[in-house]
């Protein structure tokens, strides 16, 4: 049974409402075209029925309610039928929907097969035209929403992902005067970031390549390095050509010889996969080389969806905390300043969210978060009752403003469990303070902020996930200068540092802060970087975005 025919039983109630149906006739199609009033009446009947038939699946942000509102606003006028003719833009829409995979979306969600079946009907009834109109509008609205805001709800995938910036541009499109304008405006809903556009081009490349060619894999064996020869070297060269690290050249080479050009290409590959760039193909490098094209295409698709969760346009001035790159990028006044960062360890993930940096603190006191006090500080106190004194901490009886300061050496820490720990711990400003000389605040429910640190040695590490969630800066003094440059607050900050005073300084201009997580990112040369998925978030994306067809008898 075809999809269109499967749908009809769900809509059988409307057969009684159709002006052109007769109870004692086997005739399926009318000879005379239906009137506009007949179609409008059928559209009104079909809207709620069809919306129920195409109800959202759990976790998928399908904007069906908006479709109902659009038809109400139009007085249930059809969108895709004008002057008794089907608007030709519907065919362009079907083409766009069938190409939705180029954005990492799944065409199965946009009902193109069903729409095409209706379009193939020679003499459709008013009911069939109404069904087609409503289903096509559902498909348009769903795709417009998904392209603009992302298809999936990020917090249903990962509660630690709190960055979702929906906009209503897709809704505005549904109220355009004509279906033609709606369809022509669809491509404008995609994120405007150049990074999104580059990712999309690479997705198409990997999809096309995977469809046309088989993966060229490098056989396991001893590491390959400059000067080696043999068929495995030829495999290595061919794989790097396939992945774009070696550009096609008419220059003749010995395919089985590991020459300087091959070594340089391999180093480029290693750098963009964040592995040791030694120009030799060891086990880790071969593992990365042998990752199938289809797997890489999926990874790109996950990151396109993450871009759709961001605002469609980013502020020119912003702080960009790139968690998978362990860096903080300052986009201020047309200039980019970057520095290394230390982020949360895997069991204390730095969340993904957006904040607004409003003030900074010089020589801050560190008020130890309750979780860190329970999990880190209490065990150290139980091992050494003098730990607080040695490291410049004070302890107070509670978290209230008037809490009494206690003598930590007289508290029996052995008798206190994590669940009953109610003290407040504060570390006074000094060179050993966990926050160093600076704290940069963008108030948020996660109590996450950027700050200095005395543990400078950690910035020498390649993978820098060592903190309890907050972000430590390699060069906080430079960061402080950039956000106060040219203002009176700069002088205020300089004075506070000189006097070693604990001072709160409001920023001259509030700055948006993005904490973002991408596992595939275009580099400066337009090639793709595949980064370590340190928080294992791609697996959650795979679970949410995967699609597997099922048989009708397996459904409820």
TrEMBL record:
Short name of one Pfam family: PG_binding_1
Catalytic residues as annotated in Swiss-Prot or TrEMBL: 451, 470
UniProt signal peptide: 1-19
Keywords in alphabetical order: Cell shape, Cell wall biogenesis/degradation, Peptidoglycan synthesis, Signal, Transferase
Gene3D superfamilies xrefs: L,D-transpeptidase catalytic domain-like, PGBD-like superfamily/PGBD
The organism's place on the tree of life at top rank: Bacteria
Segments forming domain L,D-TPase catalytic: 317-492
InterPro entries: LD-transpeptidase_YkuD-like, LD_TPept_cat_dom, LD_TPept_scaffold_dom, Peptidoglycan-bd-like, PGBD-like_sf, PGBDSf, Transpep_catalytic_dom
Pathway(s): Cell wall biogenesis; peptidoglycan biosynthesis
Family: Belongs to the YkuD family.
Name of the protein this chain belongs to: L,D-transpeptidase family protein
Source species of the chain: Marinomonas primoryensis
């Amino acid at each position: 049974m075809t999809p269109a025919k499967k749908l009809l039983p769900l809509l059988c109630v409307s057969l009684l409402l159709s002006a052109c149906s007769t109870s004692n006739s086997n005739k399926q199609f009318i000879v005379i075209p239906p009137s506009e009033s007949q179609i409008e009446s059928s559209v009104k009947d079909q809207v709620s029925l069809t919306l129920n038939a195409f109800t959202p699946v759990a976790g998928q942000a399908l904007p069906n309610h908006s479709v109902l509102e659009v038809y109400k606003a139009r007085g249930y006028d059809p969108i895709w039928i004008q002057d008794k003719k089907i608007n030709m833009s519907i065919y362009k829409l079907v083409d766009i929907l069938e190409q939705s995979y180029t954005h990492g979306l799944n065409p199965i969600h946009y009902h193109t097969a069903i729409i095409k079946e209706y379009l193939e009907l020679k003499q459709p009834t008013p009911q069939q035209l109404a069904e087609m109109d409503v289903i096509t509008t559902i498909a348009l609205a769903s795709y417009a929403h998904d392209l603009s805001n992302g298809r999936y709800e990020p917090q249903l995938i990962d509660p630690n992902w709190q960055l979702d910036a929906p906009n209503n541009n897709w809704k505005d499109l549904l109220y355009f005067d004509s279906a033609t304008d709606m369809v022509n405006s669809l491509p404008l809903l995609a994120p405007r970031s150049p990074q999104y556009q580059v990712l999309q081009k690479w997705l198409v490349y990997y999809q096309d390549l995977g469809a046309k060619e088989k993966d060229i894999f490098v056989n396991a064996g001893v590491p390959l390095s400059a000067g080696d020869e043999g068929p495995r070297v030829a495999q290595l060269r061919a794989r790097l050509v396939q992945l774009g690290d070696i550009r096609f050249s008419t220059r003749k080479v010995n395919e089985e010889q590991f020459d300087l050009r091959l070594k340089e290409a391999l180093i480029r590959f290693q750098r963009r996969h964040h592995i040791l760039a030694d120009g030799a193909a060891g086990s880790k490098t071969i593992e990365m080389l042998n990752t199938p094209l289809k797997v890489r295409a999926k990874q790109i698709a996950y990151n396109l969806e993450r871009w759709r969760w961001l605002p469609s346009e980013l502020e020119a001035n912003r702080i960009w905390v790139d968690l998978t790159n362990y860096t903080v990028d300052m986009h201020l006044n047309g200039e980019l300043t970057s520095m290394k960062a230390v982020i949360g360890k895997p069991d204390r993930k730095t969340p993904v969210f957006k904040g607004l940096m409003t003030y900074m603190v010089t020589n801050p006191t560190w008020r130890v978060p309750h979780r860190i006090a329970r999990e880190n500080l209490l065990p150290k106190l139980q091992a050494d009752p003098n730990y607080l004194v040695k490291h410049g901490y004070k302890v107070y009886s509670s978290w209230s403003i008037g809490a009494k300061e206690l003598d930590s050496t007289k508290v029996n820490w052995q008798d206190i469990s994590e669940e009953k720990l109610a003290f407040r711990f504060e570390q006074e400003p000094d060179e050993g303070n966990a926050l160093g000389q600076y704290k940069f605040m963008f108030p948020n429910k996660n109590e996450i902020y950027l700050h200095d640190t005395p543990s400078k040695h950690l910035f020498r590490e390649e993978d820098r996930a060592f903190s309890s969630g907050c972000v430590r800066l390699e060069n906080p003094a430079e960061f402080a200068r950039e956000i106060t440059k040219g203002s009176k607050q700069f002088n205020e900050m300089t004075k506070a540092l000189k006097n070693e005073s604990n001072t709160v300084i409001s920023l001259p201009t509030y700055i948006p802060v993005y904490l973002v997580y991408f596992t595939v990112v275009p580099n400066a040369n337009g090639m793709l970087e595949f980064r370590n998925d340190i928080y294992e978030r791609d697996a959650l994306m795979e679970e949410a975005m995967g699609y597997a067809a099922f048989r009708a008898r397996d459904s409820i």
